[in-house]
Design brief:
Radius of gyration: 20 Å
Helix content: 40-55%
Largest sheet: 3 strands, parallel
Number of strands: 3
Structural class: alpha/beta
Strand content: 15-25%
Number of helices: 5
Shape: globular
Distance between the termini: 32 Å
């Protein structure tokens, strides 16, 4: 499981809440949850209230990856989702698979029957 904490780089108050959010995660989520911090609106640097260096410092203190992105322009958005996915998969791969789950198989039948449409 992964959590993406997003703050607004143009609103220092949102950045100041990150430590409270982390505390809430530690209190309420599994200790196996992967977390990253994302500063949104990096397309609005002229209105920036949160220096990137401050966010990097906090992420290092918390030992959490940090990105800046823009939902408006799409800048770094794929990288954010790829990063949290990689972290979650890395964790899953590091866990031992129980004997019970080893015995479960999922079968997918991709064959089409006669007369079925190819698409839609």
């Amino acid at each position: 499981m992964g959590i993406i904490l997003v703050y607004d780089i143009t609103k220092k108050q949102s950045f100041e809440q990150i430590e409270n959010w982390i505390k809430g995660i530690k209190e309420n989520a599994s200790n196996t949850v992967e977390t990253i911090i994302v500063g949104n609106k990096n397309d609005m640097t002229d209105m920036r209230e949160v220096p990137e260096a401050d966010a990097q410092k906090l992420s290092q203190e918390l030992n959490i990856s940090m990105y800046e992105a823009s939902a408006k322009t799409g800048n770094n958005v794929p990288e954010v989702f790829e990063a949290i996915t990689r972290k979650a998969l890395k964790f899953i791969e590091s866990q031992q698979v129980s004997e019970k789950s080893k015995k479960k198989n999922i079968h997918v039948n991709l064959a089409r029957g006669e007369g079925e449409k190819k698409c839609c």
